[in-house]
Design brief:
The chain is of the alpha+beta class. The protein is built from 12 helices and 10 strands. The protein has helices at about 35-55, 60-65, 70-75, 130-140, 155-160, 170-180, 185-195, 205-220, 240-250, 255-260, 270-285, 290-305; strands at about 15-20, 20-25, 35, 90-100, 105-110, 115-125, 145-150, 165, 225, 235. It has a 5-stranded mixed sheet with strand order 6-5-4-7-8, sandwiched between helices. The longest helix has 19 residues, at about 205-220. The relative contact order is 0.12.
């Protein structure tokens, strides 16, 4: 009946009677009292769920269990990390990354039809290699990717080049807004932003027509240049409007994929995952100062639901 102490790893452990119908153990070396490993894991899971979903702090749980805050935090060490529940089959995939600070992020892949996150992994930066690793992992588990909804990142277009790609229309409008602001001062910018805002209401044919008509109207305006005093260097006068137009023109072939493949039921935005990111950060906002392990444990618990 000898067991290993979770506090000091000593095997000098003896039975210490029953409490509330449960077998207790006591370490002869450090005096720590604990339950059997199975019960300890069950307790750790209850504590994890209470901290994540009920937003209870370590101090609140310490009072509930009549223990110290250190005991509550130590319980989390025995809690296993929740893992994605992957069901083999065909799926539309939404891959994206969210960051908690500069050097800690989470790559997540979501199935919008099953409303399940099928992959997540902590990363230091958002790279093509991480998305490629995610795809290989999912395909090895038996998932066939029928289409991908992306945020416009160029590397993702090459990773999912063999399947239909839908660029998130919400992100596309955000890109245009970043260049033009919400209230453009120039008439050309106002008209271009109006076209961008009509993305969700137009078909591909009408969107391309409006974009082409806009360019014909403002072509000379876009070619205007500003020279330096020495007349040796120049730049386009309306660079931000040009950048907004170039973004719309480049992503146009991918903005209406959901209309071309109605049988796949492809979402036209990544809102299914973006909303999850917002919910996750709201739940974690209560627990400041988490260790790296516990932060990933909390994130895994949220993403597994």
């Amino acid at each position: 009946w000898l067991k290993k102490c979770p506090n000091c790893s000593s095997v000098k452990v003896k039975k210490n009677g029953h409490a509330r119908g449960r077998q207790n153990y006591r370490c002869r070396l450090c005096g720590c009292q604990f339950l059997s490993s199975k019960r300890q894991v069950a307790t750790a899971k209850r504590i994890l769920k209470a901290m994540v979903w009920k937003r209870q702090t370590a101090n609140q749980l310490a009072k509930k269990y009549r223990k110290s805050t250190r005991w509550v935090k130590n319980q989390l060490k025995s809690c296993p990390f929740p893992v994605p529940s992957i069901l083999p089959g065909s799926t539309v995939l939404i891959p994206d990354t969210t960051f908690f600070g500069r050097d800690y992020g989470i790559v997540v892949c979501r199935d919008p039809h099953r409303k399940k996150n099928v992959y997540w992994q902590e990363v230091a930066s958002e790279t093509a290699a991480e998305y490629l690793k995610a795809r290989f992992t999912l395909e090895r588990e038996g998932i066939t990717i029928s289409a991908a909804v992306i945020d416009g990142r160029r590397s993702l277009k090459s990773i999912f080049a063999d399947v239909p790609i839908q660029v998130c229309q919400f992100h596309q409008v955000a890109i245009v807004t970043r260049y033009l602001t919400r209230k453009p001062k120039l008439e050309a910018g106002k008209e271009l932003r109006t076209i961008a805002l009509l993305l969700t209401e137009l078909s591909e044919q009408w969107f391309l027509k409006y974009l082409s008509d806009w360019y014909e109207k403002w072509e000379d305006f876009l070619k205007e240049r500003t020279y330096s005093e020495d007349r040796k260097h120049w730049q386009y006068t309306h660079r931000r409007i040009r950048a907004a137009f170039r973004s719309l023109k480049t992503n146009a072939p991918y903005l209406f994929t959901y209309q071309k493949y109605p049988e796949l039921k492809i979402p036209n935005t990544t809102n299914s995952l973006d909303g999850y990111f917002g919910r996750m950060k709201k739940l974690l906002s209560v627990h400041n100062g988490l260790s790296r392990r516990n932060r990933y444990l909390f994130i895994s618990e949220i993403l597994s639901q």
